[in-house]
């Protein structure tokens, strides 16, 4: 599958998802990955889930999803919980720093 040509959909979450928004990457009608986010009352954007199809991990799709949510919410702080040390290292590349127990990480608001 050529992942060079992709479509982005920014939609409300699915009925079973308890979030404010869903960003989906689609190629040739197939969902390759998605990101769920919550826009918090304190102006923080909380990244709830980033999921990429198992056979396509390592191709930059998660990076694209993360870059999209950050671009959609400029100037807002961002938070998430990294479930593993490897993912914490990946998020650190985007400016996230440890901010609490259970893998909580935050990225400061940028102008």
Automatic annotation (TrEMBL):
It holds the Pfam family Acetyltransf_7. Residues 1-111 form the N-acetyltransferase domain. PROSITE patterns: GNAT. Gene3D superfamilies: 3.40.630.30. InterPro entries: Acyl_CoA_acyltransferase, GNAT_dom. This is GNAT family N-acetyltransferase. It comes from Actinophytocola gossypii.
